[in-house]
Amino acid sequence: MTVLKTSMRNFVAHKGRMALSAVAVLLSVAFVCGTLVFTDTMSTTFDKLFAATASDVTVSTKDSSDTGETTSDTGKPPVMPASVLEDVRAADGVKSAEGTVFSTSVTVVDADKDSLSPTSGGPTIVGNWNANDARTMKLSSGQAPRGPDQVMVDADTADKHGLKLGDEIGVISVVGTHRAKISGIVEFTVTNPGAAMFYLDTETAQKTLVGASGVYTNINVTAAAGISDAELKKNVSAGLGGAYKVQTAKEVADANAADVEEFMGVIKYAMLGFAGIAFLVGVFLIINTFSMLVAQRTREIGLMRAIGSSRKQVNRSVLVEALLLGLVGSVLGVAAGVGLAIGLMELMGSMGMELSTDDLTVAWTTPVAGLVLGVVVTVLAAYLPARRAGKVSPMAALRDAGAPADAKAGVVRAVLGLVLTGAGVGSLFLAAAADKASEGSLWLGLGVVLSLIGFVVVGPVLAGGVVRVLGAVLLRVFGPVGRMAERNALRNPRRTGATGAALMIGLALVACLSVVGSSMVASATEQLDKSVGTDFIVQSDSGQLITPQAVQAVRSAEGVERVTEYKWMEADFTTPDGKKLEKTAITAADPTYATDMRTETVAGKLADAYRPDSMSVHEKFAEDHGVRIGSKISVAFEGGRTAELTVRAITSSDVVIDAGAMYTSIDTLAKYVPAEKMPLDMLVFAAAKDGQEEAAYTALKSALDDYPQYTVRNQADYKDALQSQIGQLLNMIYGLLALAIIVAVLGVVNTLALSVVERTREIGLMRAIGLSRRQLRRMIRLESVVIALFGALLGLGLGMGWGATAQQLLALEGLTVLEIPWPTIVGVFIGSAFVGLFAALIPAFRAGRMNVLNAIATE
Question: Which residues form the ABC3 transporter permease C-terminal domain (predicted)?
Fold first, then answer.
C-alpha cells in the first residue's frame, strides 16, 4: 500500500511531465483500436448487406464465381436459358423464383459523356429491377423502368452527379451503347457499399448486357413455408441435374464476406503495422521520460533507501507509475480510437461508401487489446529506468547526483551495438549478393531488424561524434550559445541517442521506401525506352476490357498506321517433361506486337511465335520444363479445344514489362476458341504514320470520346502515370508513418522539457551572469535542432542502405536501375531541422519565463 501511495503521489506531482508520454501511448492505442473498430464495422456492414441481398437459394452458371459475380473475359456475363427458370419453379419447396440479369463489365455515362462510375473503386452494376433488389431499396421518386427508353438510378449516384428525372444516360457494354432517360430514383434501405446501381426492365437488360432475350445470369429462389434453405437447395439441385451452381443464402453471404475479409485484412494488418512502429517509437519516449524522472529524483530515492525502502520497493514504485501512465493513456486511447474509426467512416462516406454509425462495432476484444498493449508496452519501456532507480544507494541522498552511471554497462552496450550493426550489415550484403529474390528477401528482413536494433543500441556512442560534427558545421556560427547547445546535447549521450533513435525509425522507413519507389520508376522508364516501339497505348485505368467498338474507333482514327490488339487467357499446359500446369496464362496478340514491344529473346525470334500454331515461352519456364526451340506444348484453352503449339522463341526472363509472358497469335487463339468465348482486349497499341504523331494523338482521343472508360497515352504520358501511381502509394505510406514521426516529435519535446527542469538551477545561474532570455531560448532551440538532425542522419543513412539493398533484389526481377531521390532526402533532412525548432517552442518559452532567483534557489 505504501508503494502504491508513493507512486500515486509521484505520478500526480509529475503529471505535467507525464503528459506527453501519455499522449504517445494514447496515439498508438488509438491507432490500433481505431483500425480494429473501423475494420470490424466494415465487416458488420457488409455482413448485413450480404444477408439482406441474398435470396434463400441462388442458381447461377458453373462459370460464375461463388460471390455471384458474373463478369467474364468476353465482356458478357455467362447466362442460362429461360427454361431453367421453369425447371426451378417446378422443384419441391419453391414458393417463387425470379430470373435476373446483371453485369459489372459496363460503363455508364451522362449526357455529356462523363463517367458515372464511383471514384472510390466500387463497382458499376447494371441489371434488371427485380423483387430481390426491392427488398433492400425503395423508390423515392418516379417509377420503375417500363420500357427500353427508361432507366432507374440509385439516389447516392444521382446526388453525386446531379442527376434528376428525365436526364439521359448511356450504358456502354460489349453489345454497344444503350441510351435511356431516368424514370426513377431508388434509395438504399441498407448501407450502400459504394456501388453505382442502374436498373433496366428485364428484356432491355438482357439485350443491353448480353445481346439476347430469354436468358438470365441468376435465378433467385424463395422457399415455401417450413422448407429450410438446405432442403430447398437439395430439391433445386436435383431438378437441375447438377448442370448449374446452386447456393444457399448463407453460402453466398459467406463467399462475399470472405472476399471482403481478404481485402480488409490487407488494410487491417498494414495499419496495425504502422501502429506497431508508433509503439516502438513511443518506447524511446517512455524510456527517456522515466530515466530523466529517476535522475531528477535521485536524492528522494536515496532518502527512501536510507529510511528502509528496499530495491524491490523502489523498483516497484517506478513500475507502478508506468502502470498508471499506461492505464491513463490506454483508456483515453481506446476512446480516441472509436472517434478515429468514426472519422474514417466519414472519410469513406465522402468517397462514396456510406457507412452508418448504427453499425459501429466495438468488439470486447478491441478495448482489451488496446489496454493490454498500451500497459504492457509502457511497463516494459519503464523497466530499465526502474531497475536503475533500484540501484540508487542511500548515500546518494547526501550529494546532488544523478542516477549512477555504469561504465561497464556502457562498454557492453557499445560492443553489443557494434556486433548487431555488423551482423545487420552482413545480412544486407548477403541479401544484395543473393541469386534468387526469395532467398535475398529473408536476408534483407534479417538485415533490417539487426541493423535497426544495432543503431538503437549503439546510438549513444554515435551521438558523441555525430553531434560534434553537426556542432562544428551548424552551431559554431552562433558563438557561445551554439557551443552551450552542443555541450547540452553531449551531456547525456544515452538520452540524446534514445531521442534521436525515435526519429530515426520513421525517417529510415521514409528513406528506404523513397529509394525503392524512385528505383522502380527509373527502372520501368528505362525499360519503356528500351522495349516499347509503339507510339500510343490504350487501356482502362479501372481494369475494364476494351470492347470491339472501341477497338474499331482506334482503327478508324486519322493518322494511325497500325493497331495491335493484346488479349490474355488461361489454359492448361502439358509440357514436354509430362507435367500438367493448370490455369496458366497465355498472351495472344497481333504479329505486330513483336515490333511494338521489343522483347529480348535468348533463342529464336519473337516474330516467329506469331506463326500458325506457334508460341513462345520465357527463359525460366524453358529451364524448368526442358523446353527448346521446336518443342511442342499441349495447350487446352479454357472454353475451347486443345492445340499442339510449337515453341518458336524463348524470351528473356530479365525484363520488367510483360515479365513471364508466353505469346501466341490471335489467329491461333481464334482457331481453337469459339468466337463467343474469345476474350476482349486488355490493351490496344497504336503507331502513328511518320510525322503525324501529334495529329494521331489528337485523333485517337477524339475517336474515343464516346468511351470515357479508356485512356490514350503516349510514352511520356505512360511514364507520368507510372510515376503518379507509385507516388500516390508512397504518399499514403508516408501519411501513415507520420504517426510515428509525431510520436518522435513528442519525445523531443518531452526530453527538452524535462531537461529544462533538470537544469533549472543551472539556467538560473546562466541568467544571473548575463545570458538573456532570447539567448536562452535560442540555446534550447539549437539543442533540439541538433538532436533532430542527429536522428535524421542516422535514419536517412540507414534507410538508404535498406533501399539500395532492396533494389538489388528488384534487379533480379528486371528493375536494374538504382535511383537515390536526393531532393527527397535533402528535403527530409532540412525538414528535420524545422521539426527540431517546432519541438523546442514550448520548452524554450517556459525556460525563458523562469524567475532567476527562484531558479537559483532550486535544489
Answer: 274-394, 736-851
